[in-house]
Amino acid sequence: MRKYLAFFKIRFINGLQYRAAAYAGMATQFFWGFMTLLIFWAFYKSGANEFPMTFPQLANYIWMQQAFLMLYAAWSFENDIFDAITGGNIAYELCRPVDLYSMWFIKNIAARVARVLLRCLPILIVAVFLPVPFNLSAPMSLSAGLLFILSLGLGSLLAVSVVMLVYIATFYMLSSLGIRILFGSITEFLSGAIIPLPFFPESVQKVLYIFPFAYMQNAPFQIYNGYLSGFEAYKTILIQIFWLAALWLIGRFAMSRALKKIVVQGG
Amino acid sequence: MIELKNINKTFKIAKRNAGFGEAVKALFKKEYTYIHALNDLSFTINDGEMVGYIGPNGAGKSSTIKIMSGILTPDSGECVINGRTPWKNRIAHVREIGVVFGQRSQLWWDVPVADSFELIKEIYKISDAVYKKNLDEMTQLLDIGEIIRTPARQLSLGQRMRCEVAASLLYDPKILFLDEPTIGLDAVSKIAVRDFIKTINREHGTTVILTTHDMQDIEALTKRILLIGKGRILLDGELEELKRRNSTHKTLTVDYTGKLDGLADGMSISNNLDGHAIIVIDTEKIPVSAAIAKISEQAEITDLSVAGATAEEMVVALYKEFRI
Description:
The complex is a heterodimer. By secondary structure, chain A is mainly alpha-helical. Chain A has one domain. Helix content of chain A is 71%, strand content 0%. Chain A has 12 helices and no strands. Chain A has helices spanning 2-15, 19-46, 55-67, 69-72, 79-87, 90-94, 100-128, 142-170, 177-190, 202-208, 218-224, 231-260. The model of chain A has no long low-confidence stretch (mean pLDDT 90). Chain B has helices spanning 20-28, 61-68, 90-94, 113-123, 128-142, 157-167, 187-204, 215-221, 239-246, 288-298, 311-321, and strands spanning 2-15, 31-45, 50-54, 76-81, 97-101, 175-179, 207-211, 224-229, 232-238, 249-258, 267-273, 276-282, 299-307. Chain A binds chain B through residues 2-3, 5-7, 9-10, 13-14, 17, 80, 88-92, 94-99, 260-264, 266-267, and chain B through 11, 62, 66, 69-73, 90-92, 94-95, 97, 99, 101, 103-106, 108-111, 115-116, 118-119, 121-125.
C-alpha cells in the first residue's frame, strides 16, 4: 500500500508545480460559470416553472461543477501514460514490482486531486459571496453534505475507472488521439458537464441513467443542491458503488489481456 | 541463474508499398508479414557473470532482454530466472532485477532525481538503512551527489544516464540488464558508467547482461560474449579466445631511419612514407618477434607499436562469417 501512496505523493507534488495553469484555469472557470448562469437566467425569467431545477439548485450545480471541474474532466488524461504505451516506455513501468492498473489509477487520481486543490477554494469562496440567487449556498442538511462528500469521492473514482478503459484501448491503436476526442465529447455530454441531466427530455434521461456517466459529476452535485435527496440519494450512491466495482473488474480484465499480447514499440 | 530453452517469438508486421493507391488498398486489405525475432533461442548464464550480448540491429537482442525482464511473452519455450518464469510471475521476478534501457528514461521528468529515488525506495520497500547505504555508495561512485537535486529534465544525457543506472541498483537487484547503457554518452560518462558496473559486479556479485554496439563496452566489461543473429545464438564464448581465433593478423606501425626492403614471407607493407610504415603481419606465417627482428636488421627503428585486431574488427569479421 505504501508504494501506491508514494506514487500518489510524487504525482501530487508534480501536479502542484503548474501554478500558471491553475491561475488560468480559475479565470476560465469563473468566466464559464458566469456565462452559463447568465444564459440560464435569461431562460428562467421567461418562465421559471417550466424548468426541472430551481435556479438556486442550478447555481449550486454550476459552481460545484466549476470548482471540481478537474476532478471529472473527461478530456484530462495523463499524457505520459499514452506516451508510455505508444512510445514503448511502458517497458520500464512493467519492470516495477507493482500492479500496473493500480499504479495508473493512482496516478490519475493524484493528478486530478492536485489540480482541483489548486483551483477549487478560490472559486468556492468567491461563489459563496456572490449576490443571491447566483451564489453558492450551503447544502440542505448535514446528512446531504456528508452524502455529497462520499458521492464526490465515488464519482471521481468512477470517472478515473472509465478513463482507464481509454488507456487500455490505446494498447490496440497506433494513436490515442481519435479515441480521446471521441471519448471526451461523449462523456462530457452524457455526464451532464454541458447541460445538467434534468434538462434532457424524460425519455432521454431514462436512457442516460442506464450508463455510468450519469453517476460521475451529476450524482454528487445533485445531492449537494438537494435535487436528489433521501432515498434517491442513497440509491444513487449504491449505483455509483456498483458501477465502480463493475468498471474496475472490466478494466483489470482488459488490462491483463492487453499486456499478454503487448509489443513494446521502438526497439 | 538464467536459463533460456528453445524460446520463439514472432512479430506480425503490417506491410505495404509506398504510394497513395497502396495506402487506400491497405484500408481494406492489410498485408502482414511475420518476423521470427527469436528462433529456438537457448543459453544459460550463471550467477555473478558479466555477459556481453551482441549482434547487429534487429537481431533480437532487445526482444530477449524484454522476455527476460517479463515484459514480453514468447510464443513458446522456457525461461527460468532464479527459479521463476518472468512473464508468469512478473511482480516477484522484477523485484530482483534491475533494467536500464539506454534509450528510455525511468526518472520523473519534472521533479528532482532524488524524488524519483524516493519513489523507488517505496516501490521496492527498501529499508531506510539499506537505502541510505546504497544511495551513499551510488552518489560517491557515480559522482551524482549534486546532480540528484536537479529535475531530470535539466540534466545532460550523461548525467541522466548515471542517475538511471543508480536508480536501477538502489534495491540491490541480483541481475542487471543493460540495454545499450552508453548510447550517446561522452567519453567521461561512458567510463564512469563502465567503472561503476564493474565495481557493482565485483563487490555485490550482480549478474550483468549487457547489450551494446559499443565494442569498448564489451572489451572493458565482459569476458563472455553471446552473439545473436537472425534470432539465433551463433556463438557463445570467451572474448579473448574469439579474438585469438579471429585475429591471424597484427599491424605493426614503425618509424625508422634507413631503408626497408626485402621483407620476409607473411609481412606486407600497407603504407610506407617518409620513414613511417604500416606493416601487416600474418602471424600464422611469421611470429611478431621475428618480424620485428627482420625490420631492425634493415633499418634503425625509432618508434614501434603492435596492434592486434580490435573487438570491433572481430565483430565485423564474425558478422561476415555468419552472414548476418
